[in-house]
Write a structure and sequence with these properties.
The protein is α+β, with helices and mostly antiparallel strands. The protein folds into 3 domains: 1-191, Orthogonal Bundle (Arp2/3 complex 21 kDa subunit ARPC3), CATH 1.10.1760; 313-376, Helix Hairpins (Orthogonal Bundle); 384-531, Histidine kinase-like ATPase, C-terminal domain (Heat Shock Protein 90), CATH 3.30.565.10. It has 16 helices and 9 strands. It has helices spanning 18-45, 57-69, 74-88, 92-115, 125-153, 162-188, 198-219, 225-232, 236-246, 248-268, 278-341, 347-376, 389-404, 425-441, 486-490, 499-509; strands spanning 47-48, 52-53, 384-388, 409-411, 420-424, 448-454, 458-465, 513-519, 523-531. The strands form 3 sheets. The chain has a 5-stranded mixed sheet. Strands 1-2 form a two-stranded antiparallel sheet. Strand 8 (513-519) and strand 9 (523-531) form a beta hairpin. The longest helix is centred in the middle third of the chain and has 64 residues, at 278-341. It is elongated and about 105 Å long. Adenosine-5'-diphosphate binds next to helix 14 and helix 16.
Length: 534
């Protein structure tokens, strides 16, 4: 799970050691350099009335830097903005005013976020909304108003140019804060490091390749006017892929990659947004990228939130099951003691037997719940050993017959009673018990037949019943977590829909197979196979 760091504002920096002061000045200088170079670059690429640009990275950089390190880096923002504007040709007083606006932009945005309890990993929907609907528009509005007014009052631009300048200023800053800041923030969020699996690495590679190919195809081509509009929507494909499969960091990274393709092409005068003047094209493109980015980060946040809820739910189930296990074990011990000392023919003994049977059911349920949370946490442990299969099955069948008062026919080849399998004995017991108790539960009457067949490379165990069966349309979902066929739910058979899921995980870990054949109203046969070693 990503760390949930909130904005922290450390105590005054100057109260710390000299080393930290040097570090602070180095940080300020680096941020100043980054701010000034990206700012000058943005204004060089495309400036509206010289001072406003649609590609304004500094706003996003300074917002992220201030969120991560605190208000103390404000001087770097101020100095950076001052230098950029002086170098662009503004007089010192005008550049000073603009720099105040730019610094206030970051300060006000961070202040609003801090007051609203913002978490910078953007894994909650509320954090994304706070950034997109509150902090970024407010900060951009402030900077655009102060900056454009300064230019008009200083007679650098005529009043007629106010709106076009203000618009470019606002959009450039806003886009920067919703694209660049999340990019920096999500990449600086500490997460527990784990190497991705081969499949995951392959998927990441395919995602990046797909994004690059798509970006190149969409933006480096001259399309006819009729295809320009629909083709641009293809960018949602990799964005949705990233948001749903990998989360916030990937969603925003893919958006950034697409933005680079889009901006470079539009400036070159190619791609779907090469329609009119470069600044008009960039304006249209930036509006589209704003919608795309907001969609991506909202989707990723909603998805991450859903996953976090699921994790918490599984954690709770595990915890509750763990807490329940101790008292149940104690009750079981005392009932067994009472059973031992009570008269075998008395009614008390009968009641105690029944209590014992129910405790066993409860224990199985709790074990299943614990297993569910262990599977989710990847902590289902196995201890493998060789054991004779048929005697083990006989034990399990005997104990189920005793507790359920149902007869189970067990068919096997007597010459094979000493054949061993290599498995976790307890987990094997769990799988077989699940199949047999299901057969009993879902066939209130009729025979239950268990059988074993040894093949050269594997052993196949089957459990057959003549009960309610499973409708074909539900076959695919039977091994899914929490799935219960609506047919038996309607007939109120108790259960949680986790037994077969756990069994399938156990069998898979043994490199075996679990499958079934079933017809509604006719009964079912469940098969489980285990490989035979050596
Ligand atoms: P539970 O029995 O607690 O619901 P399981 O995971 O063991 O959970 O089984 C999942 C679902 O598969 C059951 O709810 C039932 O719909 C179906 N099922 C399993 N075994 C049988 C069976 N022998 N006959 C009919 N339906 C079955």
């Amino acid at each position: 799970m990503p760390s949930k760091a909130s904005i922290r504002f450390p105590r005054s920096f100057f109260m710390h050691k000299s080393g930290k002061i040097i570090l602070y000045f180095i940080g300020i200088f680096l941020l100043f350099l980054l701010y000034a170079t990206t700012g000058i670059l943005g204004l060089k690429i495309n400036a509206v009335n010289n001072f406003a640009t649609l590609i304004w990275l500094p706003s996003g950089i300074s917002l992220a830097a201030m969120i991560l390190t605190g208000y103390k880096i404000a001087p770097a923002v101020f100095a950076g903005a001052l230098v950029v504007n002086v170098m662009t040709g503004a007089s010192i007083p005008i550049a000073f005013n603009i720099a105040i606006g730019n610094t206030l932009e970051a300060l006000s945005a961070v202040y609003l976020l801090e007051k609203s309890g913002f978490q910078f990993d953007l894994s909650r929907l509320r954090d994304v909304l706070l950034l997109v609907l509150l902090a970024a528009p407010f900060g951009a509005f402030l900077a655009a108003c102060i900056g454009t007014s300064s230019l008009v009052l200083g007679k650098v631009i005529p009043i007629s140019a106010f709106y076009s300048t203000w618009q470019a200023w606002f959009i450039g800053d806003f886009i920067s804060m919703i694209v660049i800041s999340p990019f920096i923030l999500t990449w600086t969020t500490k997460r527990p490091f784990s190497l991705p699996t081969i499949q995951r690495s392959l998927e990441i590679f395919c995602l990046i390749l797909f994004t690059s190919l798509l970006g190149f195809t969409i933006f480096q081509n001259h399309f006819t006017a009729s295809i320009k509009a629909p083709i641009i929507y293809l960018v949602f494909l990799p964005i949705l892929w990233a948001a749903l499969r990998f989360g916030q960091r990937a969603a925003i990274t893919i958006t950034c990659i697409i933005s680079v393709f889009a901006i470079v092409a539009t400036i070159q005068g190619i791609g779907p947004y090469a329609i009119g003047e470069t600044s008009d094209n960039l304006l249209m493109l930036q509006l589209f990228m704003a919608v795309t980015t907001v969609t991506a980060i909202i989707l990723a946040a909603v998805n991450m939130e859903r996953k976090a809820y699921e994790e918490r739910k599984d954690e709770f189930i595990g915890l509750a099951a763990h807490e329940l296990k101790t008292p149940i074990t104690t009750v079981k011990v005392f009932t067994q003691m009472l059973e031992k000392i009570s008269n075998k023919k008395s009614k008390n003994s009968l009641y105690l037997k029944k209590i014992n049977r129910e405790i066993d059911k409860l224990t199985r349920l709790i074990t299943d719940l614990l297993d569910i949370s262990r599977i989710q946490g990847g902590a289902l442990k196995f201890s493998y050993e060789y054991f004779p299969l048929i005697p083990k099955m006989t034990d399990v069948i005997d104990s189920i017959e005793k507790t359920t008062n149902r007869e189970i026919t067990f068919s096997y080849n007597t010459s094979q009673t000493q054949r061993h399998i290599y498995a976790d004995k307890e987990r094997f017991d769990q799988v077989l018990t699940n199949l047999l108790t299901n057969a009993i539960k879902y066939s209130p009457k009729g025979k239950i037949i268990a059988s074993v067949t040894f093949l050269p490379a594997e052993v196949i165990i089957s459990v057959k019943d003549f009960g309610i069966g499973i409708a074909t349309k539900h076959h695919k979902k039977i091994f899914s977590r929490y799935f219960r066929s609506p047919d038996n739910v309607n007939q109120t058979y108790p259960g949680l829909g986790i037994g077969l899921y756990i069994s399938s995980v156990i069998v898979k870990a043994h490199r075996g197979k679990l499958w079934f054949r079933s017809k509604k109203g006719k009964g079912s046969v469940f098969f489980v196979s285990f490989p035979l070693q050596g």
